[in-house]
Structure formats: C-alpha cells, structure tokens
Amino acid sequence: MPKFPGIRGFFLDEVPLLRQSSRGVRGVSIPDCGLKKTGLKKDEGAYINKKFIRKDPPNLPEVSEPSVVRHFTRLSSWNMCVDSVFYPLGSCTMKYNPKINEKIAGLENIKNIHPETPSFLIQPLLKIIHDFNCILCELTGLAEFSFAPQAGAAGEFAGLKIIKKYFDMKGKNRKKILVPDSSHGTNPASSVLAGFTPVEIKTGNAGTLAAEALEKYISKDVAGIMITNPNTFGIFEKDIRKISDIMHKNGSFVYMDGANFNAFLGNARVSDMGIDIIQLNLHKTFSTPHGGGGPGSGAIGVVESLKEYLPVPYVKAVIKSGANVKSGVVDNGHIKQDIKGAIKAKGLKSGSGLFYVTAADKKYTIGRMAPFLCSFAVLVRAYAYLLSLGKNNIGSVSEIAVLNANYVKKKLAKILQGSDPFEEGLCMHECVFNDKAIEESGVSTLELAKLLIDYGFHPPTVYFPKNIHGAIMIEPTETESIRTIDSFIKAVEEIKFKVKKSRAVKSPQKTKIGRVNEVLANKKPVFKY
Amino acid sequence: MNKDGLFYFSKSHEWIGKDSNSNKYRIGISDFAQSELGDVVYVFLPESGKTYRKDEKIGEIESVKSVSEIYSPADIKIISINSNLNDTPELINHDPFGAGYIAEVEPLNPADLNILMDDNSYRIFIVSHHE
Predict the structure, then answer these.
(1) Domain of B70?
(2) Contact A265, A178 (CB under 8 A)
C-alpha cells in the first residue's frame, strides 16, 4: 500500500448527456404490443386542455444504457467523497455512512410509499418515526422532536420561531438573540430571518463563553441565546449550566446548535445542561448523507413546556382500547380517518396497543414547514444507524470521535509548532490550528488545503472560525482508523517540511480540474454547461 | 500607506481621510485589511445620504475566504458611494486608499477623528495585535 492514497490521476472526460444524443437511440427497446384496437381517442386534446399540449417533443437525451451508466460513473469519479477519501472537514462531521442504512432505506416497502398513504396502511413506518423520536428524546433528555425542518439551518429557524411565538403568545416583544462569536456561522442569519436582532458576544482568547461575560448583555429585551456546544473551536462550553441559569432567570431561552452533537452523543444529555431547544443534524451525527447526497434533516427537539409550539403535522401514538377508539384523527392535515374502521380493516384484535396517526393538534404550533411529515428515508437511515449500534455502544461514537480529534491535535501540534491556539487543554470532536507554522514554510492555509487533495485527502475546513488566523479546522470523526489518520498527519508533515512553493501555488495537480479561479467563480459563476 | 498622514484608522481596520484632489472626506478599508481578506469578490455598500454612528455596520465585504462587516470609523453622513466597486470590487485589493475607497462622507464631528489612530499608531497596533 502506498504511503498516501493520492498517487496518480486518471480521469475520463464526459460531456452532458444531451450532447451525446443520437436520434432514435434507446436505452431499452420495448416491443410493439401488437394490439390494433384501443379504446383511446387519437386526439390527445380529448383528454388534455389544448393549451398544455406541447408542439415539439421534449428535448430529452437519446442515449444507450452503457452511455448513461458511464456518464454517471465517470462524473462520480471526479468527486472526492467520504466513500473514497478521508474527509476531515471541520464542523461538518463527515463521518462514513454505513451501507446498511442505505440497504434499509432502499427496501421496497419503504422507498415506494406515497406520502398520502393512509395511516392504517403504513403503521410500521409511522412507528419508525415515532420510535426514532423517542430515542432522540432519550439521548437529549428533551420532551419531543419534530422532523419538519429539512436542514440544520431550517432547524435553527424553527427553534427561533418557537421562541418568537412563545413571547408573542405572552404578549411580550423581546427582540434580541445573543450569539457568541464561538457559535456557528448560520446562527445570526437564522435569528434575523426569524425576526430577531442578533447581538454578538465576543468570547476573547479562552475560546469559551464565561458566564460573567454574559451578564452585561442580559436585559428584558433578550429572548434567548444561541450557543453551539462544543463551540466552533471544538471546545466544550464548561459554563453551560451557569449560562442556562442566567438565561432562565431572565425568562429567556437557551437554544443550542446541535451541529456538534457528535462530541458527546450518548455521554451527556442537553437537558442536564439546561438547554430548551436543540436541532440535531441527522446528516452529521446520525450518518445520513450530506449535501448533494441529501436531503438533510435538522430535527428539532424541545423541552416539555414548548411541545405545543412544534411544527405540524407530526406522528402521534394513540392508545387503542378495544373497539372503542373513536377520536377522529386528522391525517396529513386533511384526510379524516376512522380508526375504528382502520383497525377492523387491518384485522387487528380489539385490545390494548398503540395505533400511530399523523396529527396537527398542536395548540400553539408555528405551523407547517414541510409538505409532509419528514424526509422519511433520511429518518430511516438515522434510525438504522442507531439500532445497528445499539444502546450500549452509542456512547463510544463520541468517545472515539473525541479521542481521534485529540490524537490529531497532539500529533499536529508537534509538527505545526506554535500553531495550536488552545494548546493547553483538550479539544472535543475537532481541533483547530492557525497558519503560523505553515506560513514559516511559505505555505498558506489555502495552499495546504489544495496540496492535501494531491495527497488523496479532502481538505479540512479553512479560514473558519474567522477569529483564528488562517484557520485550519480538522474533524476526523470516529469512523477513521489510526492508519488513515497517521497517513493524513504524515502528509501535513511533508507539506510543512518538504513541499516547494512552486508546487504549492499550482496544486492540486492530480485532480481533473486543477486550481480554480475563485474570484472568477464567485463573480461570474457559470451555472450551466 | 498615505505619506502625508491624512488618514485616520479605526481598530476594525477602516480608514477615513481627506482626498487631496476633491478636498472631501472618504472612507475605506486599510491595506492590511484587504491583504487579510484576500481577493474581494463583492462589496455591499452603505446607503447614500444616510448617517451612521461610529462602529455601526455600514456594509459588507465578501472575499474568497469569508464575509466581513465594514464598520463606520466615525459618526458620518454618506455623501456618495463608490459605485465602481459594484463591478470591480478588486479595486479594494489593488488600491485600498485610492480607487478602492468605499464612500465619500461628511464627518458629523471632524474633531472626533483625533481619537482614531494615525499611520504610525495604526502600524504599531497591527504589529501588536496581529504578529
């Protein structure tokens, strides 16, 4: 095995399928049905309003099956992904997504379910949503989750809307949301979108928010705080309990950005930290695909007192007592269901048991955020992930994630001397370095990132957090072996001590597309081929 | 940097100074600030005619690295903005004290500029804060 995964590059060029089109080519040839007579009228106008009938056939690529397969296989080979490379992108938790998740989510009776299917036909699927909710409640100590938000920032938005609605209902107009500079970059934006004014709190050199520093920001105008824990430097906010107490004393809420939940999953409950609302990024901590592989899910969890504010619809378990279930339950907001009839239809025995329904009966709900309940396949993957780990092993996810990050931190601190801004302590699931040491070797943070690609590693997060000069943020996650991590560290060492500037400025050289002109890409982006 | 010391600097790396040709005050970001930001790709400019308090956010600069806020170096009224930055934001990189200025302004209280740093103190400030 080579020392580094990146050795040579071999890429096959590929043009859009439309350009490969040849008239009359088909992937699959369907034989003529041989029937002469049909009950259909020849004129499509008999079925479709004339104004909707197109004059020309749609411009679809006419290509053979191998062309299509090669097209997508080639495109995928240009990509650096977690299935092909180590992906230590700090703050993103790019853990490997176990294939068993895909297998379960791909089961016919899961992937082919129409979202309007009546509840009584999909009881096991509703049970998955319900039970997964219960597991998240157990892991966080919170009272209930909603799966309506389809991404992390959408979860933040939902959480803040809940806070907003709470104060609206109380007839109070609290305008401010406190946002420490150690919290995630989306937090201030989410608060503005939800109708608040974010107030930045500077955390200073320690990298954490001290409870004393918070005091001077407290006023009756403060609706809540958005805190990321561990914060965006990968450091645990040790004052979290005190911070929560200060906020609660002021009648304000504590929103926690759960993007870094992977740091203590199964080892600490956010309810014990005094958190009122959290969003859990299933695409991070719970190993469902990220970004382009998405959609994501920013499941939002709340304490008991905020349950009635959650988005609708949601899955509710009702107790089925004999044949006496009579409450009419709203399904997807508009289909009335007769549970009694449903039980009969399913041939269920009368007696105790749970029946799962979709409901919209939340008293103060902030409303609907998604067309249906959730991105179900994402939930199934996360559920499969948790069940395949088992309750007793969930805690070791965060233990190994923290161990791996500290291994990187300590090893790299020796190579990048004087570059660890928090050298004294331990980090949580990710570690951050400044560019002091590599600058001494004449390599910038950007060049380090680009060079790592040639070594066969996805770059870490760079130039974030903003208050670390030339930041390099590394999150190895628990899914990486020591062998992979050592190889990555060795690559950084080579870049620091061996790489010449002439190579650094030209990197990456082994990829299909080399150094991109970022200014041009930002100023004149080309969105179509 | 400007040799005749007509430029005053804020701790958040904006400058305010009198343009020798027009004899009007202008604001912009320092050479140090532009080099830290890297290639600028977009500038969100302040509003013409509006007044801003010192340290109030007046705009944003987006570079290939990140988005940063521009703060007012003093209590000012915006006379006109440098609309060239809309199409050629890179002027900030090439000539931060000249063609890459942000706006022409009127200081509400010219005497207040004295509390800002001059060239020399700003240089010392950079060294001591960003070695």
Answers:
(1) 7-110
(2) no
Residue B130, pLDDT above cutoff 80: no
Asked if residues B28 and B97 have their Cβ atoms less than 8 Å apart, the reply is yes
Nearest to A258 by CA among A130, A161, A159: A159
- 3-state SS string for A78-127: CCCCCCCCECCECCCCCCCCCHHHHHHHCCHHHHCCCCCCCHHHCHHHHH
Which chain A positions have a beta carbon within 8 Å of B62's beta carbon?
Answer: 522
CA distance B76 to A226: 32
Q: How many CB atoms lie within 10 A of CB A105?
A: 20
**Count of structural domains within chain B:** 1
B115 within domain boundaries? no
Asked if B121 reaches chain A (Cβ–Cβ under 8 Å), the answer is no
Give tens-digit pLDDT for B81-99. 999 999 999 999 999 999 9
Q: State which residues of chain A have pLDDT below 70.
A: 1-2, 291-294, 320-352, 529
Q: Residue A489, Cβ neighbours under 10 Å: how many?
A: 18
Look at residue A325 in the predicted model and tell me its pLDDT. Answer: 46
- Whole-angstrom Cα distance, residue A8 to residue A454? 9
Using CA coordinates, name the residue in chain A closest to B38: A519
DSSP assignment letter at A29: P
| Partner-chain contact B41 A466, CB within 8 Å | no
Task: Judge: A519–B66 Cβ closer than 8 Å, yes or no.
Answer: no
**Shortest distance, CA B39 to any CA of chain A (angstroms):** 7
Query: Residues 469..528 of A with a Cβ closer than 8 Å to B: which?
Result: 469, 518-519, 522-523
Find all residues with CB under 8 Å of A23, minimum gap 6, and list them.
Answer: A62
Q: Which domains does chain A have, with CATH numbers?
A: 109-312+367-389 (3.40.640.10), 315-359 (no CATH), 394-523 (3.90.1150.10)
- Whether B42 and A522 lie within 8 Å, measured CB to CB: yes
Residue B129 sits at the chain A interface (C-beta within 8 Å): no
Helix axes A152-169, A186-193, angle to 10 degrees: 40
B3 to chain A, any CB pair closer than 8 A? The answer is no
C-alpha distances out from residue A360 to A310, A336, A370, A404, Å: 10, 12, 13, 43
Of the listed ranges A19-28, A64-73, B16-25, B110-119, the one predicted with least confidence: B16-25
Contact A44, A53 (CB under 8 A): yes
Q: How far is CA B37 from CA A227, B13, B53, in A?
A: 26, 11, 24
